[in-house]
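Revision sheet: C-alpha cells.
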Amino acid sequence: MYIVVTADGPRGTEYWVVNTRDAIDRNIDEHSIVERYRNPDEAHEHVDRLNAS
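Predicted:
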C-alpha cells in the first residue's frame, strides 16, 4: 500500500509517494520515495493507481 506524504522544504511543498512499510519501519529516505510531485492531485492519482494494482 502506498500513501502521499507532504513535505515542506527549501524548494517549497512537495508531495511524495511512499510505500507505507517504509514509512512505518524507518525514517523516510531517498530510497523510500517512489515519486515526487508538486501537484497533490497528481500524487494522489499515482497512489490510487499503485494501490489498485
